[in-house]
Amino acid sequence: MRKKIIVGNWKMNKSVEESAKLAGELVAAVKGQAFAESVDIGIAPTFLALDRVAAIVKGSPVKLAAQDVHWENQGAFTGKVSVDMLKGVGVTYVILGHSEQRTLFGETDANVNRKTLKVLSEGLLPIICVGETLAEREANVTEKVVGAQVRAAYQGVSAQDAAKTVVAYEPVWAIGTGRTASDEQAQEVHKFIRGLLGELFGGVADSIRIQYGGSMKPENAAGLMKQGDVDGGLIGGASLKVDAFLGIIKAA
After folding, report:
1. Is the four-CA dihedral 73, 77, 78, 81 of positive or negative sign?
2. Which residue has better confidence, 177 or 191?
């Protein structure tokens, strides 16, 4: 049985001080709670806050995630952060190919693949984001778009390494819009992704966790995660409030 995974993506929110406060409140809320042991929990603050938050979550059920990474260890890459740097502050998960990176900042499938290979080679765990826009869904090309993103991200990844990855399905039309995919819509795409992973990696696909990343909230979390192929959530706005994030963790 796949262990549920809930990761809060704080995006470009919270100062270092505010991030430390929020992380401390979350750690206090899950400390000693039985449910916290049955769910993998992660939070992804801004790069500036990673080191401070790392000290707060150390030894707790809450793991540290980063919002992106570059595929080189060092060099003339102004504004970028390397895997070595993330390892140095205690990061466990790295979010790759987020829809905002793709649509706003020109992230390509090829670069997501480079990052995936680099993160795996250094022993960290990639959360690979895939998803279609509203126009693509209305054009009935969801499987074509998502399938191409999955195939590209996993190019050159071994089955052994694929088992260490997490996929986050983000229907772009349901992020920050107030719209959410229905339980059935989410399951349909998650099932498709798992089938494609099965084509690529055989039985290993059954162990790869697929998160839902389109406006999951305490109100809809239980229904989404009752679906057979929905293994957790990549949470945006709801992760910035301890009570809301905790509600999703409990639902998982």
Report:
1. negative
2. 191
Catalytic residue among 100, 107, 132, 170: 170
Structure tokens at 129: 């984001």
Kindly name the residue from 70, 98, 107, 132 that is annotated as catalytic: 98
Closest CA to 150 of 192, 204, 186, 182: 192
Distance CA 132, CA 144 (A): 9
Given a contact cutoff of 8 angstroms between Cβ atoms, the answer to whether 96 and 68 are in contact is yes
Note if 100 is an active site residue: no
CB 10 within 8 A of CB 45: yes
173 compared with 165, residue with greater pLDDT:
165
- Told to judge if 170 belongs to the known catalytic residues of this protein, a careful annotator would answer yes
4 Cβ contact partners less than 8 Å away, ≥ 6 residues apart: 38, 39, 40, 209, 225, 231, 232, 252
Residue 233's Cβ-side half-sphere holds a number of Cα atoms within 13 Å equal to 33
DSSP string, 50-108: HHHHHHHHTTSSEEEEES---SSSSSS-TT---HHHHHHTT--EEEES-HHHHHHH---
